[in-house]
Q: What sequence folds into this?
């Protein structure tokens, strides 16, 4: 085998170290103890964070090789643009995103189980589904909310730039989480009213955020499971990063409940990655591995969305790409 291929395979197999190191350093809060332009030694940082000094030095040196922190000539460490956003107080801080995966990292042991059985590896490792696990570990809720905002928050602006919500009177955000998405849409469209629907343990956080955004009057918050029913009363039903969490059968159930209540002139909007054709690398393929292992879901191709919609009583009307990794997949009720 050529040396280049050997090295590429070595790196692929050992790549887990990179993910683990980023998440562990974020959990320890190392970035919070550094000010850009004021380098500090690993010994100092270890004292602040309770880390083992030599191990911290080695981890930071490794991360510096990937542009996260930088080692100065005298062996101290400083921030880079990437490590700066691991600070808790950074605008768009990524610390929660890394901590979210840190807390659930053992789920990756289950990828092998997913590969062999098609079942979510998370359930095999943790003994329950990811959403039940979050419900039973209340301290995880805020980390998950903030983590979701890290990974997906920037998509809201990109979606609003690309997709015209004009004409929607009441927008339902199904599985709306902490309310940041519906808040963004309602702020852009002052005449629109909203409805956020999610599980019970999410309600308090969603209500608090809508209140803080001054939108409590314009957005109803309803508790329930989309496997039982979806509330009527909206003319557009938005599902961002919901459909990718579930198998085709489960999605048909969820979208089927939506089909029962949506007006004939309504629209269903699935905001998701659309997996491109071809062999090229794509972040959507990383998320697909994550969906397979964690909730047991799927990132889908355009053809798979079209089929899923048809099986749920909708026809694919359009797919609008955005400047972020997601597209808006619009479905309209099939007649008859
Ligand atoms: C991946 S998060 C997406 C959150 C939000 N849509 C966003 O884009 O930031 C999935 C959401 O689905 C909600 N969820 C999971 N199972 C649900 C169910 N059976 N019924 C309603 N919501 C559910 C979770 O509580 C969580 O808020």
A:
């Amino acid at each position: 085998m050529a040396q280049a291929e050997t090295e590429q395979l070595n790196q692929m197999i050992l790549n887990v170290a990179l993910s683990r190191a980023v998440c562990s350093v974020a959990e320890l809060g190392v970035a919070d103890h550094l000010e850009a332009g004021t380098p500090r030694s690993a010994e100092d940082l270890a004292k602040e964070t309770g880390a083992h000094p030599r191990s911290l030095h080695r981890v930071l040196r490794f991360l510096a090789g990937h542009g996260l922190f930088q080692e100065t000539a005298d062996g101290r460490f400083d921030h880079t643009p990437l490590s700066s956003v691991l600070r808790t107080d950074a605008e768009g801080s990524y610390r929660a995103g890394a901590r979210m995966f840190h807390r659930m990292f053992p789920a990756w042991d289950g990828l092998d189980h997913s590969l062999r059985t098609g079942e979510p590896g998370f359930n095999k490792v943790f003994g329950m589904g990811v959403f039940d696990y979050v419900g039973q570990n209340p301290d995880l809720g805020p980390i998950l909310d903030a983590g979701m905002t890290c990974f997906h928050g920037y998509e809201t602006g990109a979606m609003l730039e690309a997709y015209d919500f004009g004409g929607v009177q009441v927008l339902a955000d199904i599985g709306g989480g902490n309310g940041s998405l519906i808040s963004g849409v309602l702020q852009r469209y002052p005449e629109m009213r909203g409805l956020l629907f999610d599980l019970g343990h999410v309600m308090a956080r969603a209500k608090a955020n809508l209140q803080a955004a001054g939108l409590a009057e314009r957005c109803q918050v309803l508790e329930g499971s989309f496997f039982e029913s979806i509330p009527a009363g909206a003319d557009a039903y938005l599902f961002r990063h919901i459909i990718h969490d579930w198998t085709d059968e489960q999605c048909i159930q969820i979208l089927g409940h939506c089909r029962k209540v949506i007006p004939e002139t309504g629209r269903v909007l699935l905001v998701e990655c659309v997996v491109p054709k071809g062999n090229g690398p794509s972040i959507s393929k990383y998320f697909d591995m994550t969906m397979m292992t964690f909730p047991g879901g799927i990132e889908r191709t355009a053809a798979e969305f079209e089929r899923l919609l048809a099986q749920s009583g909708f026809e694919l009307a359009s797919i609008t790409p955005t400047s972020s990794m997601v597209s808006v997949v619009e479905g309209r009720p099939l007649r008859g």
In short: The chain is about 45% helix and 15% strand.
